[in-house]
Amino acid sequence: MTATFEELVAQADSASVDGWDFSWLDGRATEQRPSWGYQQLMSNRLASVAAAVDLQTGGGEVLAGAPKFPPTMAAVESWPPNAALATHRLHPRGVVVVATPTESELPFSNEAFDLVTSRHPNTVWWNEIARVLRPGGTYLAQHIGPATASELVEFFVGPATDSQRQAWARRHPDHERAQAEAAGLHIVDMRHERLRQEFFDIGAVVYFLRKVIWTVPDFTVERYRDRLRELHERIQAEGRFVAHAARVLVDARKLG
């Protein structure tokens, strides 16, 4: 029996969104993966350095996929539920998980690491990254690119505003390259891809918007119930809702 709109929404609205694991969406949504394979790139770099830190590690899900860590391995996370998950997941493997206030300076000395990694950081503090890297050290990351999931944003809140376009522009590779270079980092490789996302039921949309909170920052089921119902009917008629995720690979080296 097919679940109703109310059942799908209630199920997604009550699901836990702690951590950075999207397995709840299995069979309900898909997202194309970037061609560069960040997980493998990160794993290869971690296996070849003496000291590394993973920024905005979430629940440690991505970092935990690396088969080998360097002798000194740290991870940083600001949201307490995620920091707790990361500690539980990573401590048994010798990773020091540091909980920090949101948007704070990194709690490490200058030139502490050979490698800094991050997957989908919300904010990139280029000066802090450069500060904790040793000369010749590397920042390897996968960033969220400009206008990611813009189709979802526009469905719920309308055409992009000037402030939204400005926020997207700050995520453009050209802007990030300039920011990195201003902090003393040399871009070795930077690639930008736009990747297809498909949502097969309204529950998947609700879960995604609750988890990826910057997509529609004021999202709640009650606030957007009417739009959710419209989208539910559209998905039923068309079989899916299609959006696109933007991803940027950043491989930068500290000069000096």
Automatic annotation (TrEMBL):
InterPro entries: 23S_rRNA_MeTrnsfrase_RlmA, Methyltransf_11, SAM-dependent_MTases_sf. SUPFAM superfamilies: S-adenosyl-L-methionine-dependent methyltransferases. The keyword Transferase applies. Pfam families: Methyltransf_11. Keywords: Methyltransferase, Transferase. Gene3D superfamilies: Vaccinia Virus protein VP39 (3.40.50.150). GO terms for biological process: methylation. GO terms for molecular function: S-adenosylmethionine-dependent methyltransferase activity. It comes from the Bacteria. Residues 54-140 form the Methyltransferase type domain. This is Methyltransferase type 11.
